[in-house]
Hints:
This protein has 380 residues and is an alpha/beta fold. The protein folds into two domains: 40-168 and 255-294, Bacterial extracellular solute-binding protein, family 7 (D-Maltodextrin-Binding Protein, domain 2, 3-Layer(aba) Sandwich); 172-253 and 296-363, Periplasmic binding protein-like II (D-Maltodextrin-Binding Protein, domain 2), CATH 3.40.190. The chain has 14 helices and 13 strands. The strands form five sheets. The protein has a three-stranded antiparallel beta sheet. A three-stranded mixed beta sheet has the order 7-11-13, with no helix packed on it. β3, α2 (63-74) and β4 (79-84) form a beta-alpha-beta unit. α7 (193-201) crosses α12. The termini are far apart.
Amino acid sequence: MSNKTALIAVIAAFLVGMLATLAIRPPGAQTAVIVGDEERSAATLRWRVPVAFATTLEVLGDNVRWVTEAIDRASNGAMILDPYEPGEIVPAFNIVDAVREGKVQAGYTWLGYDQGKIPASPLLGAVPFGMEPWEYTAWWYEWGGRELGEALYAKYSVHPVLCGLIGPETAGWFRTPIESLSDLEGLKIRFAGLGGRVIERLGASVTMLPGGEIFQALEKGAIDATEFSLPNVDEALGFDRIAKLNYYPGWHQTYTAAHLVVNDVAWRGLSSREQAIIDTACTAGVTRNLAKSEAKQGPILAGFARKGVTAISLPEPILRELNRVTDEVMAEEARRDEDFRVIHNSQLAFRDQYALWKRFAYLPRDFHAPEDVADLRTPR
């Protein structure tokens, strides 16, 4: 073959290749890159996502990593959400403000931090003496909770997506016993949400601190006690090294919901497929987050004795009184704010109709005592 003939053949092959490429991928379609054995689309969406909790905290903080990785996988690399640690680009308590103002497209947070600006927001994050986690998901997904939450935050140009859920927190870490509610008088304590309003009314001095600042405040005596999250999270933050009395149940947060909050313009700019990927990943995140939160706590409590920590159940009379004061606070908030009233009434209506099923369907909570479970284990 002459050089001229070879050159013509090369040019012809090149043109055929170009035409074949255009047939397979029309102009304007996403390009793709090969990574290992997988073909990944080039990222068409990349968002910075500030988070309220350190992603190194198991259950509370690492769920956003699971969700963003799921979005990456489901979109084949076309949708990248990059989590940023608390305070790295946005203060932990100001994530919704940053999203609303368009400083970032999205964030992952607990909506109760908006209480000072959006009075009804804590109802979407945690309610004292409220629903248990699976009840909350039933209300959110099947009883109109999602629509109420979206309508509330639409007023602030934000679209909330339920994206994480954990079980009840501890009632707090204390240095001295709580034998009556008078023991709360003058107590300096870190507390969040509507529960903070309740114990403030009982004479406690309440302060709000991000998770990363609590240990130092407790160690230096700036606060006498604290609540924050689940036992495994609180242990990771070191509260058990200072306050040795850990009270239960977490009456102030019977569930704790986390949301991916998205700037409304950014959300509406997504395709229906992109919105569906985010919704699906977040729904899976709710299930995985709750499963992990329940799996981790038993071993932590079992290890309390060797660390000199005592788990204590609050006496029922104290819980009843806390419940009474909670009802007063909730009624006052409902009178002050229409959005609060509407969402609170919806939650109460769901809880009332669910109560019959809840009472009849499930075994008593202490039906399987630890010794009974041990007796039923199959010998190896």
